[in-house]
Amino acid sequence: MYYLGFDLSTQQLKCLAIDEHLRIVHSEVVEFEKELAHYGTRKGVYAHDDVVDCPVGMWLEALDLVMKKFVNSGFDMGSVGAISGSCQQHGSVYWRTGAEDLLQGLTPSEDLVKQLYPNAFSRDTAPNWQDHSTKVQCGRMEARVGGPEELAQITGSRAHFRFTGPQIMKIAEHEPEAYADTESIALVSSFLTSVLCGKIVPLEEADACGMNLYDITARDFSEKLVEVVAPKENGAEGLLRRLGGKVVTCDEPVLMGPIAGYFVDKYGLNKNCKIFPFTGDNLATICSLPLEKNDVLVSLGTSTTVLVITDQYHPSPNYHLFIHPTIPKYYMGMICFSNGALAREKIRDAINGDDSNDWKKFNDAVLDDSLDNSNELGVYFPLGEIVPSVKAATKRIIFDKKTGEILEEKEAFDDPRHDAKNIVESQALSSKIRVAPLLNGNDSAKNTQTNSDPVVKFDYDSLRLSEYTNKRPNRVYFVGGASKNDAIVTLFAEVLGAVNGNYRLETPNSCALGGCFKAMWSDQYNSGKISKSTTFDKFLAENFPKEDLEAIHVDGDIEKKWASYNKKIVPLSNLESKLK
Ligand code: XUL
């Protein structure tokens, strides 16, 4: 038996197949700009000023094309047991009245695009997550509930341009005819699930948390927010109806249906092949790894993204909380920093004094124990930062090791090698601090509790210092370009201080793979092949091919190092309070 996982991202549609040992056995991809060039997208989107959107027809063509590639490769389509997948988040697809009939009447003699596009849609395009044309709408949503903190409390995020609620508000207002002609609004994830099922299926709950409309604690759409998006006189009930009323929850895997006859007749898929709800790409990423509560995934790309598995609902306007796509009562925290590799590269180049791009000197400095930076701290934000929410700035300080007070601000450290150590340290420290309120206290860290326990302020939180020093991740997983750099990853691991180890791995396929794993677990759970007590995390803990994970060795006395980095928390709070 095989399991398929799709990943409909901005630039491509990928499909992976795994076998029952969770090994990838086949993969196909369709690159939008290259292979579907007649849509004229650049990197998969149309961008005009602050509006960024994607043609829905291109996605339909890509689905047929990727299926054809699978068949042409000789892959045994009849042995696929179940399908799930991952899609770019926040985008919305507008099904026109009568779309369901078109979906149910699909015939294998024509391709999807011919049968559905544009007839099945009241808009040709779906807003893309890079769109930033909804400032006015975001303002209204926050104002309706009392501000960004209140909106984050309800929906897990403050208002964001790309989130679906503000996007729908704009469309309802600017395109009233298209809106009136819309029977059902899908997220990209529920759109693709619907096409595969040949019927319109509900939104998936975890991905619905990326809309600014879903009340995470009440686990229902927020009436207030639905009303602000489509005011009563304009059809708030109509919006709820268009959203399908209820989402499909993530408490248990819910079968969305067997695959549509179209795919059976055309590509030889088994008529019993099951479709399970697709989710958002970041949510699928956490399904691609054996992540448990308090585990943290650090993606060291151009920017740094930190994902955390938590049972603590502690929202903040500075990050996002989503319902976990596969584990009941858990959430996924997503912290997106804007500064990452770019900022480190600037310092690397300054130390090298040339543009060789060589990391040797930078890395030597990062790992140099004789380079004493115990009373130094630096923040390096060549781009405006999201967390903390401040303008572009670089600041270096010398602080009092006893009190954490800032003694001196410096234009430069005497030796630029200090910047190398300080940037990696402060980037990691910032991650550690933002993750802490989402972690459970950890007994093994109790001995580091200090007698004086001052209140420290970060972002919207004023918490006791011990709230930061007593919280350690269970495991930390590193992915992304800079995770290959031993020096950077080792220092990050030291500062984050995981209790049960640090790992790194290459994840070119993580979103699609998360879809495969979800499909396999859902199928086995639903068919009784595994017991109902085999939750998704247990399933992966037992079955994940562990040889794919590389353990990161952290030298020396971890507890001592952990304690020394904790001494920088108060000074960092003082330093951040000076940024605007
Ligand atoms: C997440 C986000 C992006 C897209 C990329 O909030 O907007 O990561 O999901 O596809």
What is this structure, in a nutshell?
Residues 297-521 form the Carbohydrate kinase FGGY C-terminal domain. This protein has 580 residues and is an alpha+beta fold.
SSE layout:
Layout lengths: L1 E7 L3 E7 L5 E8 H4 L10 E3 L2 E5 H17 L7 E8 L4 E5 L2 H6 L7 H5 L8 E3 L7 H11 L2 H8 L8 H11 L1 H5 L1 E6 H10 L7 H4 L5 E2 L4 E2 L1 H7 L6 H7 L14 E2 L2 H7 L6 E2 L3 E2 H6 L9 E5 L3 E7 L9 E4 L7 E6 L4 H12 L7 H7 L9 E6 L11 E7 L6 E5 L6 H19 L19 E4 L2 E4 H5 L6 E4 L6 H11 L5 E3 L5 H17 L9 H8 L6 E2 L6 H9 L2 H8 L4
Parallel strand pairs: 1-6, 6-13, 6-14, 15-24, 24-25
Antiparallel strand pairs: 1-2, 2-3, 4-5, 5-8, 7-9, 10-11, 12-13, 15-16, 16-18, 17-18, 19-20, 20-21, 22-23, 25-26
Helix pairs in contact: 5-6, 5-7, 5-11, 7-11, 11-12, 15-17, 16-17, 17-19
The structure holds D-xylulose.
What are the main properties of this structure?
xylose metabolism; alpha+beta; FGGY_C; ATP-binding; seven-stranded mixed β-sheet; 23 helices; 580 residues; binds D-xylulose; nucleotide-binding; single chain
The span between the termini is: 56 Å
What form results from the Cα inertia axes?
Answer: globular
Taking pLDDT < 50 over at least 5 consecutive residues as the criterion, the unreliable ranges are 443-449
Helix content: 25-40%
- Tell me the strand percentage band: 15-25%
Report the bound ligands by name, code or SMILES. D-xylulose
How would you state the average pLDDT, rounded? 96
Assembly context of the chains: single chain
Structural class: alpha+beta
- Total number of helices: 23
Q: How many strands?
A: 26
Q: Largest sheet at a glance? A: 7 strands, mixed
- Compute the CA-based radius of gyration: 24 Å
